[in-house]
Each structure stands twice: as structure tokens, then as C-alpha cells.
Amino acid sequence: MIRTxxxxxxxxxxLIKKLITTNKETDSGILGKWNATxxxxxxxxxxLITNGLTKYTVVLTDIKASELGKIEQIFxxxxxxxxxxxxxxTDVDNLNSIIGGIGFLPTDNDRSTTGFQNQRIEQxxxxxxxxxxxxxxPIQDLVNRxxxxxxxxxxxxxxxxxxxxxxxxxKLLTE
Length: 175
What we know:
6 helices; 7 strands; 5-stranded mixed sheet
């Protein structure tokens, strides 16, 4: 069975100790691995989950400890809603078959993705001051802005190596 691997930061790992597994044997499917970290807006826990291949970002807002048992469905719903908002339309059954189950793993020390996530958290801090509180923030719009910022994927420094997360995720899901 395909299980999507989500590697957590040390900070998030402390919050979800019960969900962390160490089994790295399963296949992660076409989406590859994801990295998750936690940040706070108005003293509410929010998760920033980033795809390792495409740098596509999803934000889960106001996650409580009582919701950790349903975190798989919360992630799938947020990802599906963000894909629809970004114009990458796929049906729920197709997305469920691509994702499969979710397995949270300890950190993989992917410095590239961690640096990328820190940049995204800094953008959220900027928007936090602009919008005030979490209820006033149009999260899907802000995540769409994050996913359309130019990024570099590839080894060279050619102009063709620059793209954005939206285009890369669309390529990955339509192949």
C-alpha cells in the first residue's frame, strides 16, 4: 500500500509523538516525500506542509491536540481544497489513490526544504501583520501566492530551471 511520507521538524515531532513512526519501508508514490513544520498565528498552531519535489505548500490552520486522530483526513481535505483553488482540478478518488495513507516520520534534515519553509513562514509573519488575526487571513489565497512565487528546481542556472510550485505540481499530477 502506498503511504505518503511526511517528515516532521523536531518542533512538530514533540507535539505529535504518538503519530511518529520509524518504518521507512513503504513506497511514497508519485508525490514523493513531504516535510511538515509548525508555526503559530494568534497562539494557534498551524502546520506548513511542503512537497519535497515540487515545493508545493499546504497550510493547516488551528490544529488542536484533539484533532490529531483525524489529521490524515484534515490534510487530504486541505490539499484537495488548495488544488481546486489553484486550478489543479483532480477528483477526490484519484487524489486518495495517489496519497494512500499518511505516515509521520522523524526529521530527515532536508536543509533545502527547511530553508524554503522558513522563507514561507516569514511571508506568513508579514501577512499576519497585514491582516491582523487568523480569522481575517484568506489562507487559500495566501498559500496560492506562496505557490506562485518563482523557485529554482534543477542543477543549472538556466532560466528554464526557474518555475513555480503550481506548475510543478500540475505536471506531477497530470503525468
